[in-house]
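Field log, afternoon session.

UNIT: design team B
ACTIVITY: writing a sequence onto a fixed backbone
BACKBONE:
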C-alpha cells in the first residue's frame, strides 16, 4: 500500500506501483498515492471529477467493479478485489472528500474520516459479496456511510441490495453498497442526475468531485 511506500521514503503524491495481493505477491498494480492529506500514506480507491475531458462510465458490470476500471490520472475505481486486499490484512481507515452544491451554493467542499473501514471478500462465510463496514466517523459532511454498513455490493447485473422490487444499481446508474431505500450516499452514480450525492442530515450535497482513500489505521 502507499503507506509502505511512504515508509520507504516515497513521499510524493501521484501514481506508484504496489503489490496488494497476498496470494499473488508478484502481481503489480498501478495506484494513486496521496502522501499529503493528514500525514499521507493513503491509497486512493475512487476518484471522480466532472472537469475532466474524458469522463469514465461507472455503469459497469459486477466483474468490472471487481477488477477495477478507469485511469489513475482521471476518473477511476480501483476494484473491489483490491479494496478487500487492502482492508483485510490490517485495520484500515477511510478518508472521503467531496465537492459540490450544498443548499444551492456551488463549490462547497467537505470531508468524512472513518477510523474503521473494511470490505469483505467476494465469497466469505454467509456474508453478501464485498460487504462494506465503516465506523468511528469524524468530519464536516455527516456520517453518510453508516446507512450502507453491512450491505453487499450491487451492480446493474448483480443485485445484492435488500429491495425486492427494484435494482438500485440499474436505476441509479452505478455500482454501490445499496440497501432499501437505495442510498444516502452514491459516489459512483452519474454526474448531473441527482444520484451522485452525499446526503446525511443536515448536509445534502449534489456532487461534482469526490475521492475515497484508505490507509492502515495505525497511522493515526
Amino acid at each position: 500500500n502507499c503507506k509502505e511506500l511512504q515508509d520507504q521514503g516515497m513521499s510524493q503524491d501521484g501514481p506508484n506501483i504496489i503489490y496488494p495481493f497476498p496470494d499473488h505477491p508478484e502481481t503489480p498494480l498501478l495506484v494513486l498515492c496521496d502522501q499529503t492529506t493528514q500525514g499521507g500514506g493513503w491509497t486512493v480507491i475512487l476518484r471522480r471529477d466532472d472537469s475532466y475531458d474524458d469522463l469514465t462510465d461507472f455503469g459497469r458490470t459486477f466483474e468490472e467493479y471487481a477488477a477495477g476500471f478507469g485511469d489513475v490520472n482521471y476518473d477511476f475505481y480501483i476494484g473491489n478485489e483490491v479494496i478487500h486486499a487492502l482492508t483485510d490484512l490490517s485495520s484500515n481507515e477511510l478518508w472521503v472528500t467531496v465537492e459540490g452544491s450544498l443548499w444551492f451554493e456551488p463549490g462547497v467542499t467537505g470531508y468524512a474520516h472513518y477510523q474503521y473501514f473494511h470490505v469483505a471478500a467476494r465469497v466469505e462465510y454467509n456474508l453478501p459479496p464485498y460487504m462494506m463496514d465503516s465506523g468511528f466517523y469524524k468530519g464536516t459532511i455527516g456520517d453518510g456511510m453508516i446507512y450502507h454498513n453491512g450491505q453487499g455490493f450491487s451492480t446493474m447485473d448483480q443485485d445484492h441490495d435488500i429491495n425486492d422490487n427494484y435494482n438500485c444499481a440499474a436505476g441509479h446508474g452505478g455500482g454501490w453498497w445499496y440497501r432499501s431505500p437505495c442510498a444516502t450516499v452514491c459516489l459512483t452514480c452519474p454526474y448531473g442526475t441527482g444520484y451522485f450525492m452525499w446526503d446525511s442530515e443536515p448536509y445534502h450535497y449534489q456532487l461534482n468531485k469526490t475521492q475515497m482513500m484508505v490507509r492502515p489505521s495505525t497511522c493515526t
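LOG NOTE: Residues 2-219 form a domain with the Gamma Fibrinogen; Chain A, domain 1 fold (CATH 3.90.215.10).
NEXT ACTIVITY: expression trials, pending approval
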